[in-house]
Amino acid sequence: MKKNSLSKKMLDKPYLLWAALFIIVPLIMVVYYAFTDKTGAFTFSNIAQIKNYFSTILLSVLYGLTATVICVLIGYPFAYALSKHTEHTQRTMVLLVMLPMWMNFLIRTYSLMTILGDSGVINNFLTSIGLKPIHMINTGGAVILGMVYNFLPYMILPIYSVLSKLDNSLVEAAHDLGSGRATTFKRVILPLSLPGLLSGITMVFVPCVSTFYITQKLGGGQIVLIGDVIESQFQSANNYHLGAALSFVLMILIFVCLGVMNYFDDGTQDGGVVI
């Protein structure tokens, strides 16, 4: 017994070392640079400058929320329908959902540039049938579409994982008690699938708020989100301290979102059926 306990503890060591080196240490460095100046002296001046980027932070949250809502509206019905198919069909469709995730993020974004460009696939088709081309690239809509395209699988998969394991006897019991489809969905299916839904929302919203590559390629510099500002502070302005301060605020925002999601998730772990 002691050997088994010791071996289990030893298995944790590599992960703890990894977490310390690549999670905890970078977070400490972000906090250090956020509250120091170039001489290493403690200061709040970096945090004070964040008020100049308040509108950018709000815009990032707005874009993140919009993309997340669209992913929910597309992902939940798709995951629900997928969970009702045969096992063979489910495996095939899950493979197709995961297929874009196996490609490089850069390639996926460039493919959208090819499709949405002024001389892209869509506009060439419109021109060929005698219609006027539509300017889609370098717009807010293109940025949101890029977010949805890149992060939609992260919404579908956790919802599908929960729905595919849903106990159908609960749904049948609701029907036997006279509940219609809408009532059954509202009082049984939705509450039981809430953990997967919340996981999907978290996995989509967090990268949407912090992204910078999508806005650069699909927004053409016209749309500037907080991720773009942070990237420019580190890459162009060489102002690591302001970049770290903005990263610190973004990190706090993400932690708050995760805390809210976990709070609602805790209330669904004991079943979640609404009476």
List the helices and strands and how they pair.
Blueprint lengths: L1 H33 L10 H4 L5 H30 L3 H12 L6 H12 L4 H8 L11 H24 L4 H9 L4 H30 L2 H6 L7 H10 L4 H27 L9
Helix pairs in contact: 1-12, 3-7, 3-9, 5-7, 7-9, 8-9, 9-12, 11-12
If you had to describe this structure to a student in words, what would you say it looks like?
By secondary structure, the chain is mainly α. It has a domain at 62-237 and 257-266: MetI-like (MetI-like fold, Orthogonal Bundle), CATH 1.10.3720.10. Helices cover 75% and strands 0% of the residues. The chain contains twelve helices and no strands. The chain has helices spanning 2-34, 45-48, 54-83, 87-98, 105-116, 121-128, 140-163, 168-176, 181-210, 213-218, 226-235, 240-266. Helix 8 packs across helix 9 (181-210) and helix 11 packs antiparallel against helix 12 (240-266). The protein is globular and about 70 Å long. The protein starts with a helix and ends in a 9-residue tail after the last helix. The model is unreliable at 269-275 (pLDDT under 50).
TL;DR?
It contains twelve helices and no strands.
CATH topology of the domain at 62-237 and 257-266: MetI-like fold
Give the distance, in angstroms, between the N- and C-terminal Cα atoms. Answer: 45 Å
Instruction: Spell out the helices and strands N to C.
Output: HHHHHHHHHHHH
Give the oligomeric state of the chains in this entry, treating copies of one chain as homo and distinct chains as hetero: single chain
Low-confidence stretches: 269-275
Tell me roughly what share of residues is in helical segments.
over 70%
Mean pLDDT: 88
**What's the CATH architecture name of the domain at 62-237 and 257-266?**
Orthogonal Bundle
Give the number of helices. Answer: 12
**For the record, what is the CATH homologous superfamily label of the domain at 62-237 and 257-266?**
MetI-like
Largest sheet: none
> Which radius of gyration do the C-alpha atoms yield?
23 Å
> Per the principal axes of the C-alpha atoms, what is the gross shape?
globular
Number of strands: 0
CATH class of the domain at 62-237 and 257-266: Mainly Alpha
Structural class comes to mainly alpha
Strand fraction equals under 5%
